[in-house]
Amino acid sequence: MASPRTRPEVDEHGTGPAGGAATADGVAPVDEAVATAAPTRASSVDLGLTLPPLRRPVALQRPAPQQRPVPVQRPAPPAASVGRPRGTARALALRELVQERRLASVLAGMTHSAFPRTLAGRTAMRLLLAAPFVIVAVLLEVGGVSESVSANVLLVARTATVDWTGSGAAWLGDTFPPITGVVAAITPGGAFGLSIVGALCAGVVVHAMIELMVQRGFHASTVTALTLALVANPLFFFLATENLPAFLGIAFFGLAMTDVVRFVTYRNTQSGFRAGILLMLATLTDPNGLLYATAAVLTVPFLTHGRHQVGVHRAHALVLVFPTLSALAALMFVQWSFGGDPLGAFRSVLDYDASRWPIFWSLFTTPFGLLLLAPVASAWLMTTVVRRLAGGVVGTLLLAAVLLGFVIGTVPMNSAGNTFVLVTLAAIALVPPSTTVPRIALANVMALLQLTIAIAAALQRDVVVQWMDTVLRSLGLT
Prior knowledge:
There is one protein chain. The chain is about 60% helix and about 0% strand. It has helices spanning about 30-35, 85-105, 120-145, 150-160, 170-175, 180-185, 190-215, 220-230, 235-240, 245-265, 270-285, 290-300, 310-340, 345, 365-385, 390-410, 420-430, 435-460, 460-475. Helix 3 (about 120-145) packs across helix 19 (about 460-475), helix 10 (about 245-265) packs parallel to helix 17 and helix 15 packs antiparallel against helix 16 (about 390-410). It is globular, with a radius of gyration of 48 Å.
């Protein structure tokens, strides 16, 4: 018996059930038993609907947990070049270089311990070093040095014309630079008194240079050679005893250069402040001191290997020039307030003469000019040996400052030895100590060469020859 859920089979023509004849109504006969069990409502076949096949229920799947994003690894930066590191590598290399130089300074004895260690010992040493200069000053007073030779005579004459009893500030313009003007006014004995002051200051300066070389660890032979090159020549004696303003300005400059090196190279801030004050004193004692201070500031970029650090160099320069600019600004304000002319003090010392410009060309055409160039050439030679460019640069700038001073009148025409003493003091401050025997021997030879140049230059300068004749005459040797 056919199942009630089974669809009746139909012939292929769809006219009736298979295997039986169709009725008159076109409906196939159905078994009664089946008919009684059939449902009363229409089936899906009768309605012409097609039921989708049953499927097994699909189990719900939980969403996969979110995974943390994997960090993208950036490619490693290219290795810095061996020849010249750049960027961060260059900064690290410079930092390591600074640390090495600081360590080298400690190993080389770059300390601030005094030499000698006791105050009595230092005082005795200064007096001992000043004794030869005092003796020469006395001999000059006995022999009667010519007024045309001594710049101290001109300073005393100019100071005598100043009205010190006035209530205004006109004396500042009449005595510029003010420090040497005041010293000349309060020192008894006139030009001879100024010679004694210069002689005592010479002992202090020579002791300071010796102390510096001992602190930096110079070999004993090099200390002796450089001291002889600085002192054992007529130019240094002439400058100390006959031109107090120039000698004090050059001495302050030499002491300032030692602190400039400590400030820029070894990051010693106290030395920077001290150097700025010393450059200010050089400006207020020597009419040409401002040019020396400018040369010292222009040397700063050449004292370190990191010359690309423009901001650092500007900060160094600002620390060094601030005291000088402040003092000059205050002086100009006082001159403007009381006299109405802020530049009056500077005009009193200027004596510009266009006919003096040929002195630059005479450097290469006369024996005196060649001897004037010789200390600078020696400084460049020393720069090549020790590989420190600052020595040659500062020597060239100082020579230009002295020659420009001759043209504008800030360096008296009867002055001598300025370039030699300036370059020698700068060399002592800038040259690093030698640790090997060949370098020590070469430094000693260069120092003795400087001494030979100084003696030869003194014999070519007329004012120095007259000064030497006076000293020898006082000794009874002529």
